[in-house]
Specification:
16 strands, binds fe (ii) ion, alpha/beta, Purple Acid Phosphatase, chain A, domain 2, 6 helices, six-stranded mixed β-sheet
């Protein structure tokens, strides 16, 4: 696992250190917890695919353990990716086009960890509005909820959007003035050759949006885990540390 640090200048968001822990997929998380403990972020944000939907039904799942570890370090907010809502419900991502809503039991279990679930929902934390835009799933359903996005885009308070899919940024999110968007999902393109990812569900072959910063205000994580037997090649798992600076500094990309 690598830790990637970015400096983001955002005049409206308060200066702070944010950790982004995306796409753990229920994998072992000791390295990530060690890095979080060392970094001591002000906020931990998890933009989806922390665990598979079947893991949500198991209170002993490592995803819940990871949430508890995160909460012991910093306030933790968690939004849902395509895997939580059933993308791999029976092991075949292409035959389950309808999202499966989270059960009440899973919601209670998440609440018990102390993490805040943002399922197409938002909260205000220290004057910052934080919204979790729940993933679409596959095919035609793979799109952001336009109503949730439009509602979040209004208002005066500075905003951070957790949006699992980086391909939702253009054009829908980019045309708003949302100050910061955090994404995962693409796993850096799974295989990375000559600095370029090979494949991402939702973007296809040679995807454009797999890691790094878009438009100075959208940061994409390569993710902390893997969910298939297809290995990650030249593409280590990644924890993001984002230093938000109200004063202008050069972004490190
Ligand atoms: Fe995903």
């Amino acid at each position: 696992m690598t830790v990637t640090s970015y400096q983001i200048h955002s005049p409206r968001l308060p200066s702070m250190l944010i950790a982004v822990a995306s796409d753990l997929h229920g994998c072992p998380h000791k390295d990530a917890v060690d890095a979080l403990q060392q970094a001591r972020p002000d906020l931990i944000l998890i933009p989806g695919d922390l665990m598979e939907d079947k893991m949500l039904a198991d209170p002993s799942s490592s995803g819940y353990a990871f949430l508890r570890e995160c909460v012991s370090i910093a306030p933790t907010f968690y939004s849902l990716g395509n895997h939580e809502i059933g993308c791999y419900h029976k092991g075949n991502p292409w035959r389950h086009p309808t999202p499966i809503p989270l059960s009440d039991q899973a919601r209670e279990e998440i609440a018990r960890t102390g993490a805040v679930l943002l399922d197409n929902d938002e909260v205000t934390w220290n004057g910052v509005r934080i919204c979790g835009l729940t993933s679409g799933i596959n095919g035609k359903e793979n799109k952001a909820d336009a109503e949730v996005l439009a509602r979040f885009a209004k208002g005066d308070a500075p905003r951070i959007l957790l949006c699992h899919h980086p391909e939702y940024f253009y054009p829908d999110i980019a045309k708003t003035d949302i100050e910061l968007t955090l994404c995962g999902h693409a796993h850096g393109g799974q295989w990375c050759f000559f600095g370029r990812g090979v494949y991402s569900p939702g973007q296809g072959i040679f995807p454009k949006y797999t890691a790094g910063v878009l438009d100075g205000r959208c940061v994409i994580s390569r993710g902390l885990g893997n969910h298939t037997r297809i290995p990650r090649i030249c593409n280590p798992c990644e924890l993001l540390l984002i230093s938000l600076n109200q004063k202008a500094e050069e972004n490190q990309v």
